[in-house]
Amino acid sequence: MLARNIPRLTLLALACLEHAAALDPAVRAEVERRAAELIPPRSPEEARELVKAGPLVLELLPGPEGLSDSDAWGVTVTASLLGAEEPEGALAVLLRFRDHPSLRVRRQLVGTWGRFDSERYATEVLDHLDRDDLHITCETPEQRATLSLMRPWHKVSFIGSVPVPDMVRALDPGRVETLSLEANDSVGDLSRLLVFSSLKSLWLQRCPHVSGLATLCLAAPDDPLTAADWQQVAALPALRALVMYAPFSVSTYALDVMPELPAVAELRIPGNIRGHSLATLAARLPSVRKVTVKAYGVTLDLTEYTRHFPDADIGDDLG
Q1: How, if at all, do strands 266-270 and 241-243 pair?
Q2: What's phi and psi for 232, nearest 5 deg?
Q3: Cβ neighbours of residue 224 closer than 8 Å, sequence gap 6 or more
Q4: Does residue 65 lie in a domain region?
Q5: Is 109 a domain residue?
Q6: Which residues are paired to 249 by β-bridges?
Q7: Considering the entire predicted model, what is its pTM?
């Protein structure tokens, strides 16, 4: 088997070491040497191949010292995939990376939470992570219960029907800047979210019973926004980014009744907001410094946007 220097066979030989009662030390050393050449993996595909060799791989995974950010990410992916099969060994590997500065590594550590005991992983790994640009997602009541055991998170997602009072109990509402709700049947009047006094961005997906601010956050409101809706937007004291995606009907945003929002610094809009509508929007947002135009696959002339937002960086999103 070793005569054929094929990665998959090397991993198979590595898996066999666990069950070999007696083995020539030279053979064992050669297998481990070749396996080490495959570790750390450089892609998710390589990580999945490593995992096929079983939990013994965990013993060969290096710590963060001397690894590039990409290699460190490969190690955390591999350990994550083995979390269900060998949680103790996988957790021991991941613990070594909890102080890693790479956003990609930190995102991997957050994303694998569901493979481990919620409270232990939260206190031993998640609570130690640098929060910069990092978003945490809660999918179970057990995960939600552990949020209050950690330092405050600024970007949080809840998946499932979590009532607003439960969110407030789980979080420090004055520290949350980005809140994302998905598949939530419990949330209705979004004015109840005003308790999140530092909220800058609110994202809603499959939340069928929302009212008030919901129409602003959904892709295309069924009914035009009202002056009362816009007043609720203006009531968010820390609002800094405004996302408006209604590619077929600008009128749903009712820009004529939109109040001035002097705190908004970033704007994302569809490419069909032009002319009078664009001029109105610019007048209501005097402090915007970044504008992204959703082009929907069409090449846009951004000259008009530059004219109306002379102090902003203008860019397009072709997706």
Answers
A1: parallel
A2: -70, -35
A3: 251, 252, 253, 254
A4: no
A5: no
A6: none
A7: 0.63
Decide if pLDDT at 225 tops 50: yes
Q: Is residue 218 part of a domain?
A: no
Angle at the Cα of 139 from the Cα atoms of 99 and 206, rounded to 5 degrees: 125
Cα(97)–Cα(75) distance, integer angstroms: 9
Within-domain flag for 190: no
313 strand-pairing partners: 290
Segments forming the whole domain that contains residue 238:
230-319
Query: pLDDT band for position 310 (50/70/90)?
Result: very high
- Give the separation between CA 231 and CA 239, rounded to whole angstroms: 13
What is the tens place of the pLDDT at every residue in 32-46? 777 677 778 878 888
> pLDDT band for position 216 (50/70/90)?
very low
For 123, other C-beta atoms within 10 Å of its C-beta total: 14
Give the span between the Cα atoms of 20 and 290, in whole angstroms.
62
Tally the domains of the chain: 1
Q: 284 CB contacts (<8 Å, ≥6 apart)?
A: 255, 258, 259, 260, 261
DSSP letter string, the chain: -TTS--HHHHHHHHHHHTT-SS--HHHHHHHHHHHHHT-S-SSHHHHHHHHTT-GGGGGG---STT--HHHHHHHHHHHHHTTTT-HHHHHHHHHTTTT---HHHHHHHHHTGGGS-HHHHHHHTGGGS--TT--EEE-SHHHHHHHTTSSPPSEEEEES---HHHHHHHS-TTT--EEEEES-SS--BGGGGGG-TT--EEEEES-TT-BTTHHHHSSS-SS---HHHHHHHHT-TT--EEE---SS-GGGG-GGGPPP-TT--EEEEETT--HHHHHHHHHH-TT--EEEEE-TT-----HHHHHH-TTSEEEEE--
Sign of CA pseudo-dihedral 180, 186, 190, 195: negative
Q: Examine the pLDDT at 1 and tell me if it is beyond 50.
A: no
Angle value at C-alpha 154, between 148 and 160, nearest 5 degrees:
65
